[in-house]
């Protein structure tokens, strides 16, 4: 039995006539009668009572009609889902976010705009650090990630620049330097620095140290923060100062002030990472929306990287 037989069965039941059903289906009446007889023989039941004028469903036919409609409905749903997946309009996408990335305004904007464009797609967000997100990509636990490059042991992954974010200095409230809205790194030479472990974001970690060295000093390391966003509460506790992505100024711990930095300030880089060789329209749609939202934010503190040709070809 194939689904064509069920379509014929439903058409005859709806029309109450082989002749009218054949006209609706666009086939000849004798082949239709033969197909229905073949279905009855295969099922071992009589579906229709043949009358002088038309047909009438048997009791068994009445029961099976609802199930036939349900199966045909499932077929249509299956086809619609498959076609939606092929166009990137249906399904789900699992997005990993490195430390503090969720605080960037383009993230909720991207999710909202993506949901408006493709309401049948479900987005799952997972916050972690770059090494853990790399592993999740390899394990296929997530589909795409916004990470802080470089990505350690990134074999098998496609990593392309997304943006560079301005950094600011976080000072404990009441700190002598807090009277200055703008600071230079040299002014922090005697301050203990709160920084996260290098393995969580080697690129940003090294950028901070390099900027300090270019400013003529080696920072005095203080308390180590378990995550990038965790630096703010430690600064609020008076354990030191920190250089953080500007988006962290949204964390209001009540005991921190934020200050812009001069030309020697490091930049916090972000990149898009996904498995190499993925040909998924859904990912291409998400990346396109993400990049468009980054551009639309028009924030002078953020430099948006151009799209790479190999990334565009992979995620399509």
From TrEMBL:
One of its GO terms (molecular function) is DNA binding. Residues 1-58 form the HTH lysR-type domain. CDD domains: PBP2_BudR (cd08451). PROSITE patterns: HTH_LYSR. Transmembrane segments: none annotated. GO terms for cellular component: protein-DNA complex. It holds the Pfam family LysR_substrate. Gene3D superfamilies: Periplasmic binding protein-like II, Winged helix-like DNA-binding domain superfamily/Winged helix DNA-binding domain. It comes from the Bacteria. Signal peptide: none annotated. InterPro entries: BudR_PBP2, LysR_HTH_N, LysR_subst-bd, WH-like_DNA-bd_sf, WH_DNA-bd_sf. Keywords: DNA-binding, Transcription, Transcription regulation. Belongs to the LysR transcriptional regulatory family. This is LysR family transcriptional regulator. The lineage of its organism: Bacteria, Pseudomonadati, Pseudomonadota, Alphaproteobacteria, Acetobacterales.
